[in-house]
Amino acid sequence: MTLIENAVAAYTRQFGSAPTAAAVAPGRVEIMGNHTDYNGGFVLPAALDKATAMVGAATGDSAIRIYAADFRREAVFSASNLQRDPHNSWASYVLGVVDQLQQLGVKIGGFQAVIHSDVPGGAGLSSSAALEVATAFFLKQLFPFDLGPMQIARLCQKAENEFVGVPCGILDQFSSVFGIDGGLLFLDCLTLEHSAVKMGRDDIAIVICDSNVKHAHAGGDYTTRRAECMAAAAHFGKQLLREVTWEEFIARENELPENQRKRAKHILTEDERVLLMRDAAKAGDTARMGLLLAEGHASCRDLFENSTPEIDLLVVLASQIPGCIGAKMTGGGWGGCTVNLVYANAVPEFCRSLAARYKERTGNIASVYACRAAQGAHAVPL
Ligand code: GLA
Q: If we measure between CA atoms, which residue out of 163, 168, 137 comes closest to residue 152?
C-alpha cells in the first residue's frame, strides 16, 4: 500500500468515513549549504522519496481533530482559539500553519485529518517541514487560499519560527515544496531565486546513513550558532554573513572572538562550495563532487562544530568503501544523518558494508538506505 492508501485506511478506521482531500510533502537532504540559509547564502538540497501524507475532511464546526497514525495519538483543538497542547507537541507543526493562514485572513474552519509519514523523525531529514508543508497543501483544498509555492514555503517556515519556536531558515520548507523528481535544487536564500539542477550523469545514487543518534536543536545549539553568525555579520556592519566579502573578512577576521571567526569562515567557504558543487553536479564531475563533500564535512566538523564523533566516523568509513563518491553530514547537526553519493551499481554492497563497519566500531546500528530525489509537495486526488 502507498503512503496515501495507508493514511486513507487509518482515517476510515479512526473517523468512520472517507476523507475528501489528501496531500503529500517530502523530507529533504541537504547536499551542500550547511547553515547557510539563515545567513542569506546558497543551498543545494534534494527532496526525498520519504514523505508525510495528510488526508481528511472539513467538519463544518470549529473543532480540529488530528490523528497521528504512526504513534496512534489524537489531539483536539479549536480553530477559533488555537492553543498548544504540551502533551501533543507534534501537533504544533499543524497548528502553526493554521495560525499563519488565519493571520493572513484565511478562514480556517474545523477539520479532521490523519497524518502518516515515512520520513524518519529527529534524523535531520526535515520531518517537521514535511508536516508543515503537507498541512498547507491539504488545507488549501479545504479552505482555498491564493498563495504561490514560495509564499507557502515561507509561511511554513514562519509557522516553525513563531508557533513551534525553532529559528530555522527556509531550506527545509523550500525543498519540500519545490522538489524535483530525479533532480537537485538550488536556492539563493537572499533573493529567493531558485533553479532545478540536473546531475550530468544518471549513475549517482543518494544514500542516507542515519547514525541513530537523535538530536533536538530547538532552542539549543542551533540557536547559539545562529546568534554567533549574526554577531559575526554585525561586526562587519552587515545583517547577514552573505553580505560580507572575502576581502572584508580577511582584513578583520582576527578581531572576532574565535567561535565567531570559525562560524563565519564556515559560512563564507560553504557558500562557495554550493556554487562549485552545483557546477560539478551539472558536469557530472564526480572527482570534484567528492572533494567538495569532504571539504564541506571538514568545515562543519572543525569550523561550525556541529558534527558528532559518530557522524565523523561514518564519513571516514564511507570514504573507504568502493563506489563511494563522497560523504558528509547533513542537516542541523549534532547527530542525525550523513549523505553519501555512491555509484548506483555499488549501492547494495556500500549499504551493507557501511552498516557492518559502523557496528563493529561503535556497537551502534546505523540505518543505511538509498533514496531518490523526488517531486515536491502536491495534492493527491482521491
Ligand atoms: C535545519 C534547519 C534549516 C537549516 C539546516 C542546516 O535543517 O531547519 O533551516 O538551517 O538545519 O543547513
A: 137
φ, ψ of residue 272 in degrees (nearest 5): -65, -40
Positive or negative: CA dihedral 115, 99, 42, 248? negative
Q: Find out whether 242 and 40 touch, Cβ atoms under 8 Å.
A: yes
Contact 338, 328 (CB under 8 A): yes
With cell 530555522, the residue in question is 168
Tell the residue number behind the cell numbers 531565486, with chain if given.
193
Q: Are 3 and 53 in contact (CB under 8 A)?
A: yes
Active site positions, annotated = 172
Q: State how far the Cα of 65 lies from the Cα of 81, in Å rounded to an integer.
A: 14
User: Which residue type sits at 87?
Assistant: H
The residue whose CA is least distant from atom 4 of ligand 1 is 35
- Three-state DSSP at 240 gives coil
Residues having CB within 6 Å of any atom of ligand 1: 30, 34-35, 37-38, 126, 168-169, 171-172, 331-332
- From the CA of 129, give the closest atom in ligand 1: 8
Which residues sit opposite 26 in a β-bridge? Answer: 51
All three cell numbers of 380? 493527491
Residue tagged 485572513 (cell numbers)? 105
Give pLDDT tens digits for 306-335: 999 999 999 999 999 999 999 999 999 999
% pLDDT > 70, the chain? 98
- pLDDT tens per residue across span 94-106: 999 999 999 999 9
